[in-house]
Amino acid sequence: MEKIDPKFKKLIDFIKSLYPGLNPVPLHAPVFWGNEKKYLIDCIDTTYVSYVGKYVTQFEELTAQFTGAKYAVAVVNGTAALQISLQLAGVKREDEVITQALTFVGTANAIVHSGGIPVFIDVDLDTMGMSPSKLEEWLKRNVSLNAGTQKPINHLTGRRISAIVPVHIFGHPCRINEIKEIASQYNIPLIEDAAEAIGSTYMGKHVGTFGLAGIISYNGNKTITTGGGGMIITDSEELANRARHITRTAKVPHAWEYIHDEVGFNYRMTNVCAAIGVAQMEKIKEYLENKRDTAEKYKKFCDDSGISFFMEPQGAHSNYWLNAIILKDRSERDKFLEFSNAQGVMTRPIWRLMHKLDMFKNCQHDGLTNSLWLEERVVNIPSGVR
Which of the residues in the chain have pLDDT under 50? Predict the structure, then answer.
């Protein structure tokens, strides 16, 4: 192993002091400090373990109340939530959907599942989310509104642009209000990927509620978890009702007949998963405060040690799902990753950019200067509730 900077040795010792007794120190393990077992036993005792049950409804109501959305629809995971949101926003086969290359693969996969083709726009360095200026620049250069339909068309491909999907990376809000304004100018529906961002707000408004719909993930490593699960949040009653219908295999309500009126999906969250979600929502404020305290401790240590720690953007209140440090270059990043993991502290680089993956290598993009810079330098460090 190559020689490591002493400041990084001190950082590893500091992380171990934050998470004493854990070996290895996980990146983000779930915690179950509430009524999870009680509610799960209730599911088993009542036999309501599939998507029929009171906890699904309760979880949706709690999420709508917490985020300020009018409606919430619980589904099996965040990718399914995004796929359904895009389909209900009007994405058709061979339409293009604008998103960012700096994201988890689920974002791009959901676009393809909905029939769309991703177009990747660069991010801002201080948010890691879609850059409004880069978005506007690309649209002005490549897109115009059809004179008859007023639909946005990509000059280079002749395809319709049917949605914009910015991502709130690691729980840090992007400049979503500016993106919303640009999307409106081009008549493009806005769907927010807030998979990592429950509890994060921008200008006092919960992310995921700026556009037509937003999605949240409850994977096992998220701020709160249902083991596996996702949520669609929206102010549109029509979209919420359609989402519930098609994620329940588009079954027409009837006491005994099995009649389905369109091609649907078996995507509804189970009562078992929702029971865990209800218990987690009862503790979410405590968890968010705990994680913010951890971020503040990291910030002070990093400031004192000459390490660049990624802070919430101006105007944002982040959930600090995954804390991140920015290293000097790829070489320093790789040295730190090797050293920290060898020392029993789980760290990871940011995801491989989407346009570098084989299935998305032919997708249009704008050069992605900032995304490439961040890819070579960002490392996530342990961020779980302590």
Answer: none
